[in-house]
């Protein structure tokens, strides 16, 4: 049994879906954490869900990164706790400097809400151990600012150290320009930090967590977290 | 204590692609401004603050830009400070 904390900022909208994925579908413990709270005790994994925290004012995730709960999430991550930022959560993690780079306006300037194919690039993270390398996951995106950018040096380091976890690909597994919904560099859909315990991804695995939703391919990410939660806790 | 007014300009760094600026440029081309070579979009903020001196105002605004107003990964900023006229 793993214990999940689902952070709720004003304007978060995927908190219920994230709770559903881990609590209803995987039968794990889960509780909501309001952005002004500081108590992360007993958690194995913090989920920063999608949405429009603080109305996306100034920059997506910028104001949320200054909230009280994020101070605690920084410490939680530093202790080795698992953190997954989905969509707006990925933006918050970049603004908090827990992940490198930034998420910019989609190259199309359009808000894109559509299914994507993700290729699992590595199983050497606590978020993907239950998947296989090269496996394709059908998971939707829903964002206007998911265009991953990092300077050339950072990008090279991410690629060279295997920290790109998911890439947008076509149905045959090729990373093409057409399969990239937002113009992300190298078709990047998700990355982890140096330590490997903080994942940011623009697609919504919680919205691919039940056959009724058209896909349950996203569950493998949460299943991996559950599998690895015990190991992570024992080392912290 | 003195009152200062600041203008803060936040723009994307030159190396960062600016799709919004490209669309604005194309729009200007379409309506009869073919001479437009490039457009960069950004943010403009005005900030009023009460501090002891101009140098303190500049230092505080610099810190605001670093911490919140700009994202140093993709953006650069410029601050112009002037003493506000007494009310």
Task: Describe what this molecule looks like in 3D.
Chain A is α/β, with parallel strands linked by helices. Chain A has helices at residues 15-25, 68-78, 88-95, 152-160, 219-234, and strands at residues 3-8, 29-34, 45-48, 82-86, 102-104, 112-120, 136-143, 147-149, 164-169, 188-192, 198-201. In chain A, the strands form two sheets. In chain A, strands 2-1-3-4-11-10-9-6-7 form a nine-stranded mixed beta sheet, sandwiched between helices. A two-stranded antiparallel ribbon of chain A has the order 5-8. The radius of gyration of chain A is 16 Å and the shape is globular. Chain B has 87 residues and is an alpha+beta fold. Chain B has a three-stranded antiparallel beta sheet, covered by helices on one side. Chain B starts with a strand and ends with a strand. The mean pLDDT of chain B is 94. Classes of the chains: A alpha/beta (236), B alpha+beta (87). The A-B interface holds A 58-59, 62-63, 66, 94-95, 100-102, 104-109, 147, 149-151, 183 and B 15-17, 19-20, 23, 43, 67-69, 71, 73-74.
Please provide the count of β strands of chain B: 3
Would you list the SSEs of chain B in sequence order as H and E? EHEHE
Question: Beta-sheet strand percentage of chain B?
Answer: 25-35%
Q: How many angstroms does the end-to-end distance of chain A come to?
A: 17 Å
The share of residues in helices of chain B is 25-40%
The main sheet of chain A comes to: 9 strands, mixed
- Gap from first CA to last CA of chain B: 14 Å
- Kindly estimate the percentage of residues of chain A that lie in beta strands according to DSSP: 25-35%
**CA radius of gyration of chain B:** 17 Å
| Main sheet overview of chain B | 3 strands, antiparallel
Low-pLDDT stretches of chain B are none
- Looking at how many chains there are and whether they match, the oligomeric state comes to heterodimer
- Overall shape of chain B: elongated
Number of helices of chain B: 2
Q: Given the helix and strand composition of chain B, which structural class is it?
A: alpha+beta
Low-confidence stretches of chain A: none
């Amino acid at each position: 049994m793993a214990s999940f904390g689902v952070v709720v900022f004003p304007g978060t909208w995927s908190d219920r879906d994230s709770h559903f994925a881990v609590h209803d579908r995987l039968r794990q413990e889960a509780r909501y954490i309001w952005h002004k709270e500081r108590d992360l005790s007993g958690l194995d994994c913090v989920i920063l869900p999608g949405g429009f925290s603080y109305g996306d004012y100034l920059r997506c995730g910028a104001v949320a990164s200054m909230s009280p709960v994020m101070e605690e999430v920084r410490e939680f991550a530093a202790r080795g706790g698992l953190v997954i930022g989905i969509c707006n959560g990925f933006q918050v993690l970049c603004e908090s400097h827990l992940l490198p780079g930034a998420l910019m306006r989609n190259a199309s300037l359009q808000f894109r809400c559509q299914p994507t194919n993700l290729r699992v690039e590595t199983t050497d993270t606590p978020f993907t151990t239950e998947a296989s390398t090269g496996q394709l996951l059908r998971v939707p995106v829903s964002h206007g600012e998911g265009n991953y950018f990092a300077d050339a040096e950072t990008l090279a380091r991410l690629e060279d150290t295997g920290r790109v976890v998911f890439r947008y690909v076509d149905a045959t597994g090729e990373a093409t320009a057409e399969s990239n919904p937002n113009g992300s560099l190298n078709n990047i859909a998700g990355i982890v930090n140096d330590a490997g315990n903080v994942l940011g991804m623009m697609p919504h695995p919680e919205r691919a967590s039940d056959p009724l939703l058209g896909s349950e391919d996203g569950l493998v990410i949460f299943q991996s977290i559950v599998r690895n939660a015990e190991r992570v806790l024992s080392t912290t | 204590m003195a009152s200062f007014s600041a203008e803060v300009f936040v723009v994307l760094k030159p190396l960062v692609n600016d799709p919004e600026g490209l669309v604005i440029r194309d729009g200007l081309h379409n309506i009869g401004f073919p001479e437009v070579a490039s457009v960069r979009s950004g943010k403009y903020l005005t900030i009023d603050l009460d501090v002891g001196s101009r140098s303190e105002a500049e230092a505080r605004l610099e810190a605001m830009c670093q911490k919140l107003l700009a994202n140093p990964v993709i953006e650069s900023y410029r601050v112009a400070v002037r003493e506000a006229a007494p009310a």
